[in-house]
Amino acid sequence: MELHNNLFANTRFGIKRDTKKVEDSRSVISNNLYYGFNQTTVDQFQPAKDIVSGANDVIGTKAGENDPKFVNYPLSTPMDSPNFNTSWDFHLQAGSPALGKGTTAFTRNFPNGLELNGNNYASPAPSSFIGAFSTKN
Fold it and tell me: pLDDT tens-digit profile of 7-18?
């Protein structure tokens, strides 16, 4: 398992582990950013026996730390909300703590993509930002 450059905003937990079958030396986790609007959310993604942390993770201990500065997304969205609004824009704004915190020191899987129902889905190249999108050009 390799997990790099993921941005977790208002997630219920951090990266969970099976405490009876912990990851081995092949598992690499690094450069992930965590944001929680409220303290309950922040408390639930703190590294613990069942929550894994990685090298160079950006993880605060107080509500509101590490605001990812999305272009358009209400940071107060509850962690258990099933709603999705197509107007949300997860590109990062200048000053985001996710900019320049990603790692390019890994090899992506499926660089030529995977085909599903006639569509090709290419895996993005490793980047220096955390999350799915950088800033808008």
Answer: 999 998 889 999
